[in-house]
Amino acid sequence: VQPSTIRNVRSWSNIPFITVPLSRAHGKSFAHRSELKHAKRIVVKLGSAVVTRGDECGLALGRLASIVEQVSVLQNQGREMMLVTSGAVAFGKQRLRHEILLSQSVRQALHSGQNQLKEMAIPVLEARACAAAGQSGLMALYEAMFTQYSICAAQILVTNLDFHDEQKRRNLNGTLHELLRMNIVPIVNTNDAVVPPAEPNSDLQGVISVKDNDSLAARLAVEMKTDLLIVLSDVEGLFDSPPGSDDAKLIDTFYPGDQQSVTFGTKSRVGMGGMEAKVKAALWALQGGTSVVIANGSHPKVSGHVITDIVEGKKVGLTRNLTVTSWFIGRLAPPLLKRLSLSTSKLNSLAIGLRQIAASSQDSVGRVLRRIRVAKNLELEQVTVPIGVLLVIFESRPDCLPQVAALAIASGNGLLLKGGKEAAHSNRILHVLTQEALSIHGVKEAVQLVNTREEVEDLCRLDKMIDLIIPRGSSQLVRDIQKAAKGIPVMGHSEGICHMYVDSEASVDKASRLVRDSKCEYPAACNALETLLIHRDLLRTPLFDQIIDMLRVEQVKIHAGPKFASYLTFSPSEVKSLRTEYGDLELCIEVVDSVQEAIDHIHKYGSSHTDVIVTENEKTAEFFLQHVDSACVFWNASTRFSDGYRFGLGAEVGISTSRIHARGPVGLEGLLTTKWLLRGQDHVVSDFSEHGTLKYLHENLPVPQSNTN
């Protein structure tokens, strides 16, 4: 999903698969690589650096054969393939050099009468002559290669006039369509034997001039209503300066119209184009509705499959992200199935929560938090504002989608959502319902769905378009997102390794009831109990026996911590790790000697999510509450209360285990930030200097109880 529809900006990533949401007569450009497999008509542009050898004299035959093989595979799949190829000049240069050397050697032998030949100088060869000598040989080579795959090829040489003259343009269009109809691959090239030098800035308004094969490929793609244009070059992507320079940096995101931020180098070692020409041609083709991929076609590790990989949707080149994918689900674990289900009770709770959000959101944005009279007629206000565009990656629970969407809407934020693949169908339906509701108010695109992991990776680079990423899942997921995010803040919702410490002064009835609710009420939830810490004095007491009996009745599998196992003759399976989120009817039990040891254990093995003490000693409880450094710390209450709905927030975008901005269940308030508004009357700082006429007052003013912005 592209945040460009939320903010009216278009974007690229580092190796260009470029698409923009522009309409065209033959349909819309593909919005994500996974859709490229549906491309029917494809233009492949082969740059000079791709088809020529490193010595710039002759063709890279192995590379060319591989490209022909890939094009043939796609053609035989029923696609309509067209080639725009360079190489005539290089091939002609090779032939002419050979002829000149042969001619010079014969003349020298005749004049000297000797077999020894002097060192011969090769004159500078004119490009048009090289093109004339090379075009027939290049075409003969293509014909021989395509014949191996039972495919016929046809050559078409064009100049700029063939596009500007209406009759010639119609003739060219008709010829190409007829060749495609007969399953022939057109091989198109500029007629370099007669083409005049390109004039600078010669583009007509709305029309790109054919100055090189990059512009030819773009013009041809649009004229023929092509689905996809693949531009193969010899570099990895777009750099902020020439790729060979020491400080050249690969640009993760490029904004069309911001070409001034890039220092383009000279054209490639051969040919007439260069990256600047490719960028310009790509943008023009996009405006015509053709999707564009720019990729490296000369690297030996990828050139053998780069074209077919692109069409199969693999990550070659780069992408703007918008797609809907189908997932096939096999046998799933019971906890996952429980998270995936949308039961009546879940839907009822969801509806109540959404109404709570609606009721609390009337003055959430623009609410005055603080008013200060800085000086006479100089008043300062701190008001709430949206954060901007949010990217929320959540687990398999589909009910998260409407909850997070409601919070984003209520806080005025744009939203990109990535749900678990197992819930793809439910998420898609819920997203459609969300957009139907938003369309009533004309903001349908404010909430959009991301469906692949690849899309998330690309979105994490868009630091100028996404303001906050909220991953909900394992600590590994949070780490991966933090690593992938390029300059975007990440509000971590890590795993829920929740602890409950049963103190030596705990109530028997309370302890058993709290353990049951925390572990068994919904074991798949992130706020379910995972580790039970028991004070050593409680072992072999009625309280301990009651807890163990209850867990057996509830069919909870017990894993013994190292200290607990040492007290038992026949112990349950010893825990593999004290830092485990089971998400099922499994529980780790460990023994501690004191409340301080319990706190130390929580800090070492917990996830800073939710931790509980069960005790009747208020002093011990307060010590625990003040010293456990977690987002939620409870006394004689179930871990399951750690929830935005139960806190009265309506819902939550996640439970933040971070320490900055928001912590614990993140509701509406956590998705807002603030700005300062200062209203004065020609106030300047110099008036408040030692010899100035004004004095600071800094008086706190009453804040309005309710205001609507």
Notable traits:
709 residues, Aldehyde Dehydrogenase, Chain A, domain 1, 7-stranded mixed β-sheet, elongated, alpha/beta, 33% helix, 3 domains, 6-stranded parallel β-sheet, Aldehyde Dehydrogenase, Chain A, domain 2
Chain-wise SSE layout:
Elements: E1 17-18, E2 41-46, H1 48-51, H2 61-76, E3 80-85, H3 88-112, H4 127-147, E4 153-158, H5 161-164, H6 166-181, E5 185-190, H7 213-223, E6 228-233, H8 275-287, E7 291-296, H9 306-311, H10 334-340, H11 344-360, E8 368-375, E9 378-386, E10 389-393, H12 400-410, E11 414-418, H13 424-439, E12 447-450, H14 453-459, E13 468-471, H15 475-484, E14 498-502, H16 508-520, E15 529-535, H17 542-553, E16 557-560, H18 562-566, E17 586-592, H19 595-605, E18 610-614, H20 618-627, E19 632-635, E20 655-656, E21 664-665, E22 672-679, E23 699-701
Parallel strand pairs: 2-3, 2-6, 3-5, 4-5, 6-7, 10-11, 10-13, 11-12, 14-15, 14-18, 15-17, 16-17, 18-19
Antiparallel strand pairs: 1-7, 8-9, 8-23, 9-22, 20-21
Subunit structure: Can form homodimers/multimers.
Pfam family, one: AA_kinase
Domain Aspartate/glutamate/uridylate kinase: 40-296
